[in-house]
């Protein structure tokens, strides 16, 4: 078995799949982000331990607040491709997949953190009126406003998704109703009940 599976994965993609240099850089960044999670030697960990380490890193990245959910999700695409490849090549026995983040949950978490930061800054201002750090207060308030904006966008997109699902469901129900009425009419005609 190779000493570093991530390097073997990248080499295979580079030379056998002929992926672009930009894609190779993307792979390297994703593996660098998840270094220490056991990807280089996944056999040393149980599938549950490997998945727990990967999910733990995702939570760490989320808690920082400086990494967007979309960035984490793009790295997870690489990690999941690697896990699928490692399974197909026989390096890991179980096919594992790290679930991608939902932007709405991330936006809510970001908003909650920004809200707490702003509250803490306001408490500090009330306690020590003479040494108010207006730059920090302004920064916390701006982060909160940005988090509110992102949460609103995420919730609006989720609402649009729900509305699309609802309209699809309504079209499906209408189609089923129509199909049932047509088949009912056909059955009545065949039985001679309808003229």
Cα distance, first to last residue? Answer: 77 Å
- Count of β-strands: 0
Structural class: mainly alpha
- Overall helicity: over 70%
Please give the domain count.
2
The general outline is flat
Q: Average pLDDT value?
A: 76
Q: Secondary-structure element order, as H and E?
A: HHHHHH
The number of distinct helices, counting runs of at least 4 residues, comes to 6
- Beta-strand fraction estimate: under 5%
Care to describe what's here?
74% of the residues lie in helices and 0% in strands. The protein is flat, with a radius of gyration of 26 Å. The longest helix is centred in the C-terminal third of the chain and has 58 residues, at 134-191. By secondary structure, the chain is mostly helical. It has 6 helices and no strands. The mean pLDDT is 76. The chain has helices spanning 5-15, 21-33, 47-64, 69-88, 103-127, 134-191. The protein folds into 2 domains: 5-88; 103-191.
Summarize this structure as a short list of keywords or feature phrases:
flat; single chain; 2 domains; mainly alpha; 195 residues
SSE blueprint:
Elements: H1 5-15, H2 21-33, H3 47-64, H4 69-88, H5 103-127, H6 134-191
Helix pairs in contact: 1-2, 2-4, 5-6
């Amino acid at each position: 078995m190779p000493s570093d599976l991530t390097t073997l994965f990248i080499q295979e993609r580079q030379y056998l799949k002929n992926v672009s240099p930009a894609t190779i850089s993307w792979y390297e960044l994703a593996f660098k982000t998840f270094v220490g999670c056991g990807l280089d030697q996944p056999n040393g960990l149980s599938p549950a331990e490997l998945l727990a380490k990967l999910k733990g890193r995702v939570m760490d990245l989320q808690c920082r607040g400086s990494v967007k959910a979309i960035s984490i999700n793009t790295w997870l695409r690489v990690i999941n491709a690697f896990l699928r490849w490692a399974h197909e090549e026989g390096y890991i026995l179980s096919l594992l997949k790290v679930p991608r983040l939902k932007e709405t949950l991330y936006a809510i978490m970001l908003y909650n953190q920004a809200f707490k930061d702003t509250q803490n800054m306001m408490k500090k201002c009330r306690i020590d009126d003479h040494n108010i750090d207006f730059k920090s207060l302004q920064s916390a308030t701006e982060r909160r406003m940005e988090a509110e904006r992102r949460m609103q966008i995420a919730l609006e997109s989720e609402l649009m998704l729900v509305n699309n699902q609802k309209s699809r469901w309504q079209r499906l129900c209408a189609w089923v109703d129509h199909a049932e009425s047509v088949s009912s009419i056909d059955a009545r005609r065949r039985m001679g009940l309808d003229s």
